[in-house]
Design a protein that fits this description.
single chain; 250 residues; mainly alpha; 11 helices; 83% helix; globular
């Protein structure tokens, strides 16, 4: 691997780790970079999923204060995420590679739409949080399961989906605590899918390692300082990278 390619993948890992901790959709940074350097789409997705797991762990550790006291609600959500991630990973490995290449551009478009609408979504969640008081029930767990399937198959913007699901399901909860739970659930999906990929898929290990190291640094930075980044600038970068990925796939 040329040194400049290695440096770019490492830098993408840092950015993805920070973005995943803050909002989600870090895959829209690392996945296009791997595509640009010639990795097949499925191999790029598999290697990216494995590489982002350590960043999620780092982000969860950074949010440990916000996670305190959430064990009871986290268990059913975690179970739903783990099962969904397993189903998604199996679908990725079972369906033809051509199907992934055909489906993923649509997923990226959905992810980009969610990113653009994220400010409005956040305001809607804040308004609902001030009016409604209830805890998560079976519909929320089912929605988390569905997001796990999506995350195990591809995963871009899974974090935004989880923020919406959890925000609507836990309207009285502080948004930072919801975000902390989101980091854990999305990371669990990546972990489950990554374990399956290690044994059943072709992994480009050097890019996965570079993304892993970078995502750890990004996850730590995202938990500590990432809230200071201008949200509009962050969304603009993600949209540009996502459009690049669509063009590459098509």
């Amino acid at each position: 691997m040329p040194p400049l390619h290695a440096l770019a993948i490492f830098a993408a890992g840092i950015a993805a780790g920070a973005i995943n901790t803050l909002v989600g959709s870090g895959t829209l940074i690392t996945f296009p970079v791997l595509l640009a350097f010639g990795y097949p789409p499925v191999t790029a997705n598999v290697s990216n999923t494995i590489g982002l797991v350590p960043g999620s762990v780092a982000g969860a550790i950074g949010y440990r204060r916000e996670l305190a006291g959430q064990r009871r609600r986290a268990i059913p959500f975690a179970a739903a995420s783990a099962i969904g991630g397993t189903v998604g990973a199996i679908l990725l490995l079972s369906l033809p590679a051509a199907a992934f290449k055909d489906i993923v551009p649509a997923f990226i478009v959905i992810a980009l739409v969610l990113i653009v609408l994220q400010p409005r979504l956040g305001r809607a969640l804040d308004a609902r949080r001030s009016r409604v008081r209830h805890e998560a029930g079976p519909p929320a767990i089912l929605a988390v399961f569905a997001s796990g399937i999506y995350g195990g198959y591809f995963g871009a913007a899974q974090g935004i989906m989880l923020l919406a699901i959890l925000g609507l399901s836990l309207p009285t909860e502080n948004l930072q605590r919801i975000n902390a739970l989101k980091v854990v659930l999305a990371g669990l999906v990546n972990l489950i899918a990554g374990i399956i990929f290690i044994f059943a898929a072709h992994v480009a290990w050097l890019p996965a390692l570079l993304i892993a190291i970078g995502s750890i640094l990004g996850g730590i930075a995202g938990a500590r300082w990432g809230r200071r980044l201008p949200p509009a600038a962050l969304r603009a970068v993600i949209v540009i990278v996502g459009i690049t990925a669509i063009v590459r796939l098509l």
